[in-house]
Write a structure and sequence with these properties.
The complex is a heterotrimer of chains A (about 280), B (about 140) and C (about 280).
Chain A: H1 2-35, H2 39-52, H3 59-72, H4 76-89, H5 93-109, H6 113-125, H7 133-146, H8 150-158, H9 164-176, H10 180-189, H11 193-197, H12 201-223, H13 227-271
Chain B: H1 2-15, H2 48-65, H3 78-88, H4 91-106
Helix pairs in contact in B: 2-3, 3-4
Chain C: H1 2-20, H2 27-39, H3 43-56, H4 60-72, H5 76-85, H6 92-105, H7 124-140, H8 151-154, H9 157-171, H10 178-187, H11 191-195, H12 199-221, H13 225-272
Helix pairs in contact in C: 2-3, 3-4, 4-5, 5-6, 6-7, 10-13, 12-13
The chains are: A mainly alpha (about 280), B mainly alpha (about 140), C mainly alpha (about 280).
Chain lengths: ~280, ~140, ~280
């Protein structure tokens, strides 16, 4: 009697062990594919794991792995989808928080500015994450950075000790940037001034030249009482070049700012050693 | 909770199409790519006539077009349209196409349907107006 | 004795462990997973799973499913090849119908005399589906209504009228003549464009050509010959451009109408789901 009873228990124990080991080795297989950068296949194996994991013991890990694989493949919407699934399944506070941060990071990369702010606001309201507020602030700073708001990013980074470098970078960028309104404003008064301000000297000289020429011709036409000619030159030629001067001033300022922004973002992506999205 | 699950599961079937082709690792760039400039100022040409035309165009762009703002509602601007149409056919047909395009530019009344490009211009490629028939390419 | 049994069982543990490692990759398990992926619309992965099982033990139903995966992904060429290979299998009828459907989707005409698959169907539903497909192809090819005999037999009552109007539009498209448009514009600048329903462009042409013609005339009258010739040149420029533009406008009008009709017909057929492929349930064979 006793051996049979013992045998029975052992068989049950081994069955559990086998199933456990099967799924564990499947997870290990999927993770090894991830490590080898074979992300498409890693997702297939993680999905296989999830499909056979009837007890949902590996659901969190499989969904997180799928999310990370999609992220590596640049498919951010799918990544968010799977991270959200993992977040719903998560059982511990640590798991929940880490997945939420992954979602926030992917949304920063997607440049979903308002969504990230909203998600961070929600987390900051939650009492459970009082101790993690500096982490949340840090990602808020990155959100401002991606949204091209360097001033507020510097402000936020200033409150975190470990982000001093980022604060300095943001302040530098803010100083380097051109004021679009200023460029447009001075161009209203003096055609070509806006282009000089942004360093486009050739365009500025040409703008100034044409505006002076047509301005002179219009005034001359009016003063010689050739009203129709004056109006024709004034509207068809002078106004066209005057408006062109304004739109160029704005365009060049915006373009220069874009360049500065892109240079800084590239620099951060390649050289910044701290935590990045 | 269950509703959220259902929504997630349902919405993924809308995503599934992305995996209908194998994909590789792709790093997302932090910086936003600046669009390629519409105009090529290069004077490289296949023949002397094209060279002359290109020189005239570049001169016009430098002295006038770049200074008087972006006034053309169409995507290849009228001057680029002229260059491309002469290149695709011949000077006579190119000129006729350009004249037609110029008239359509003056149209302040109801414009017929054009596809709108991402930059907000109206797509109007020369291929649409060539004889013999060149099937309009969708860019 | 008991200890002995216990030790034997314990020693079997690692052996059993090793043999269970690939438990998830048995054909049955792979098929179940592949079916799940198919339902999730993850067709490429599903096709790869089916392919993996198929390479170990060839099976027609798996090949059929692989064909379905390609069909669902709109990869008509590969779907067509798969269904062609299955034309004589136990799923021959369904495969032949889907082969013909993919030919239709690839805009190849279903020519009953030269096509390499038999068009005889035993299953009545499949036969009806085939006749519908054939009729759809004939409508698209512009066969006139009078020759489409079995239209009312094979389609539902509510659809027959709509299909008849499509047949009418395909066989007698309302074309605008490019030469007529050019001629109209030669007589009255802008008239050709109005003929092709580009009203704004037509009026603009008329105004611009008229304005420059007037300016040329006015300057010649006032003996300003250089200015007169300049304006005359501009008039000729816009006039000839308009004649050319009217010709092209009529031609493009016809092309766009044709394209629009084809798209409308295709989306109508899709919405009707006439050619839904059979998705076989059933155990792994």
């Amino acid at each position: 009697m006793k051996p049979r009873w013992l045998l029975f228990i052992l068989v049950i124990y081994f069955q559990q062990g086998f199933t456990q080991t099967q799924l564990e080795s499947q997870l290990a297989f999927a993770e090894s594919l991830f490590a080898e950068e074979k992300y498409f296949d890693a997702i297939t194996e993680a999905k296989r794991l999830a499909f056979f994991d009837s007890a949902n013991q590996y659901s969190f890990k499989s969904n997180k792995l799928i999310g990370e694989s999609y992220r590596q493949g640049g498919k951010l919407s799918e990544a968010v989808h799977y991270f959200t699934k993992a977040e719903i399944i998560s059982k511990t506070k640590v798991e929940f928080f880490s997945t939420k941060i992954e979602i926030i990071k992917v949304n920063i990369l997607r440049r979903a500015f308002s969504l990230v702010n909203h998600q961070l606001d929600e987390m900051e309201k939650d009492e459970k994450y009082k101790t993690d507020s500096s982490t949340l602030q840090y990602w808020r700073g990155w959100n401002f950075l991606f949204h091209d708001d360097w001033e507020r990013a510097a402000e936020v980074f200033g409150k975190i000790d470990s982000a001093a470098t980022l604060k300095n970078i943001c302040e530098e960028v803010q100083k380097k940037k051109y004021s679009v309104n200023f460029a447009k404003g001075i161009s209203v008064v003096l055609p070509g001034a806006g282009q000089f301000y942004t360093g486009n000297y050739v365009s500025g000289i040409l703008s100034l030249g044409w505006n002076v020429l047509f301005g002179y011709l219009t005034v001359q036409a009016f003063s010689a009482e050739r009203v129709f000619d004056g109006m024709a030159v004034g509207t068809i030629l002078w106004l066209r070049f005057y408006n062109g001067n304004l739109s160029n001033a704005e365009k060049f300022a915006v373009e220069k700012n874009e360049l500065i922004k892109n240079e800084t973002l590239d620099f951060l992506q390649k050289n910044y050693q701290g935590l990045k999205p | 909770m269950k509703i959220l699950w259902l929504i997630l599961v349902f919405s993924f079937s809308l995503f599934a199409q992305t995996d209908w082709q194998r994909w590789q690792k792709s790093e997302i760039s932090y910086s936003e790519k600046i669009d390629d400039p519409e105009r090529s100022y290069s004077l490289r040409a296949d023949d002397p006539f094209e060279f002359l035309l290109k020189t005239a165009a570049v001169t016009y762009w430098f002295f006038i077009s770049d200074v008087d703002g972006d006034n053309c509602p169409f995507d290849p601007s009228c001057s680029s349209f002229f260059l491309e149409s002469v290149k695709a056919s011949n000077i006579i047909e190119g000129t006729l196409m350009f004249a037609d395009r110029f008239t359509r530019d003056f149209n302040v009344f109801n414009r017929s349907d054009y596809r709108v490009t991402p930059k907000g211009r109206l797509a109007d490629p020369p291929e649409k107006y060539l004889i013999p028939i060149v099937h309009p390419k969708v860019k | 004795m008991r200890t002995f049994y216990f030790l034997i069982l314990l020693s079997l543990f690692p052996i059993l462990l090793l043999s269970q490692e690939s438990e998830l990759f048995t054909p049955e398990k792979r098929k179940a997973f592949a079916d799940y992926l198919f339902c999730e619309k993850d067709y490429l992965r599903a096709s790869e799973e089916y392919e993996a099982i198929n390479s170990a033990a060839k099976n027609d139903s798996l090949s059929y499913y692989i064909g379905l995966c390609f069909l669902k992904m709109n990869d008509y060429e590969r779907a067509k090849d798969h269904f062609f290979l299955l034309r004589n299998s136990f799923l021959g009828e369904e495969s032949r119908l889907l082969f013909l459907k993919t030919s239709f989707m690839l805009n190849k005409n279903i020519d009953v005399k030269t096509d390499s698959v038999s068009i005889q169907f035993v299953n009545k539903d499949l036969e009806t589906s085939f006749r519908r497909l054939e009729l759809a192809a004939q409508i698209k090819a512009g066969m006139s209504q009078t020759n489409l005999f079995s239209l009312s037999n094979d389609f539902e009552e509510s659809d027959t009228q709509i299909l008849k109007s499509f047949a009418e539009n395909f066989s007698h498209p309302q074309r605008k003549s490019p030469l007529a448009a050019a001629l109209f514009s030669a007589i009255i600048p802008g008239a050709g464009k109005i003929y092709t329903k580009n009203y704004g462009d037509g009026i603009t042409s008329f105004i611009v050509t008229g304005l420059f013609a007037f300016l040329a005339y006015d300057n010649f009258q006032a003996n300003h010959n250089t200015r007169g010739w300049i304006f005359a040149g501009l008039t000729a420029f816009f006039y000839s451009g308009n004649v050319y533009g009217s010709y092209i406008s009529a031609r493009n009008y016809n092309l766009e109408r044709e394209e629009k009709l084809k798209n409308e017909f295709d989306s109508y057929l899709n919405s009707k789901n006439y050619f839904v492929p059979k998705e076989i349930e059933g155990s792994y064979k």
